[in-house]
Amino acid sequence: MTGTPEERLAAVGLTLPPTPAPLAAYVPAVVNGHHVYTSGQLPLVDGALPLTGKVGAEVTEEQAKGLARQCALNALAAIASVAGDLSAVKRVVKVVGFVASDPRFTGQPAVVNGASELFGTAFGDAGIHVRSAVGVAALPLDAPVELEVLVELHTPMGV
Prior knowledge:
about 160 residues; alpha+beta; 4-stranded mixed beta sheet; 3 helices; about 30% helix
């Protein structure tokens, strides 16, 4: 792959948004040595949720997949805010996706693919990660999707 992760995102029409402001008493991301851990990232766009509700009821699987992609963009913005830029990322290690689901909905893995595919676009093989996709009863602000990300950095920071 050529170019920076930001350039690869731009090639598909995406840019990193401003880092979403925390909704409570936490920070968006922290660095610990070779790793950056993100807080749960909602699919906020300009500080608001584009959709609310349960996946499989008010929100379709395809809409939720797009929201998971937005969560991933927000996570990347949080990572860049503490790492300097995305070129500092050696690899995406783990993704945990939470999907607010109608009790009959079982397509959580397909929803979280929206995030996983974005990491592949940005980082190529270094975007391949381990992952959990979990159905939950409710998320903050009635968000349909929330995402946590762990990445490894090329060079340790904050030690």
